[in-house]
Design a protein that fits this description.
Blueprint lengths: L7 E8 L4 E10 L2 E11 L6 H19 L3 E5 L7 H19 L4 E5 L1 H9 L6 H12 L8 H17 L18 H7 L1 H12 L1
Parallel strand pairs: 1-4, 4-5
Antiparallel strand pairs: 1-2, 2-3
Helix pairs in contact: 1-2, 3-5, 4-5
């Protein structure tokens, strides 16, 4: 059942990976945030890359069926120097996205720097810094061995913060509820964008 408004909803965050895929479920009730579950999908012992992709699809579909999130937010692949790693992560993200879409869930994606900035205030934060900030904000236990899991939760929290802000942001979703686009919003509201950019630079 879809909850009305951004102040009451269930968000699943996913940090795609080919060895471990982190996930977290964020519950928002009247604006108050609570971590319901945090975990990771372990594929370390799997050697066949296609077996991993199939497993990712099944597990994400199972998690979606079990918890029925209103929205699913994923971290997009980091475009670094290692092309092969980027391609592998892109496949993992695409399969996870397809699993959520197969359950008729709204899907959003954010680049790693956006997630880190939303949680810590800087896009260059480490995984450990993100985890420690989540520990303070959501009262979860910090475990340096489960940083993929906390990264998944961070994506969910980033989506909530971005979409519940008084100044609209630009998650990579197809269209707005009114059928418009982010580009159209920018063209029609340049003064809001300027104020938002100034506030984020302080």
């Amino acid at each position: 059942m879809i909850r009305e408004g951004t102040q009451n909803r269930l968000i699943m965050g996913i940090d795609p990976g080919t060895n471990r895929m982190g996930y977290g479920l964020l519950k928002v009730t009247d604006g108050k945030m609570e971590c319901l579950i945090i975990g990771d999908i372990d594929m370390v012992k799997m050697k066949d890359p296609y077996e991993k992709l199939g497993y990712i699809f099944r597990r994400v579909a199972q998690l979606t069926d079990e918890y029925q999130p209103d929205e699913v937010a994923l971290e997009s692949p980091f475009f670094g120097e290692n092309v092969q790693s980027m391609l592998k992560l892109g496949r993992a993200q695409g399969v996870a996205m397809a699993a959520a879409l197969s359950r008729d869930k709204k899907v959003f994606e954010y680049p790693p720097t956006r997630v880190k900035q939303a949680i810590t205030g800087t896009g260059s934060a480490s995984k450990e810094q993100v985890a420690k900030m989540l520990q303070q904000m959501l009262h979860i236990e910090y475990d340096e061995k489960r940083l993929d899991a906390t990264d998944g939760l961070a994506v969910a929290l980033c989506h909530h913060l971005m979409t519940s802000s008084p100044i609209p942001t630009a998650p990579k979703h197809r269209t707005t509820k009114r059928g418009g686009s982010w580009e159209r919003f920018v063209a029609e509201n340049p003064e809001k964008i300027v104020r938002h950019q100034r506030s984020t630079r302080k």
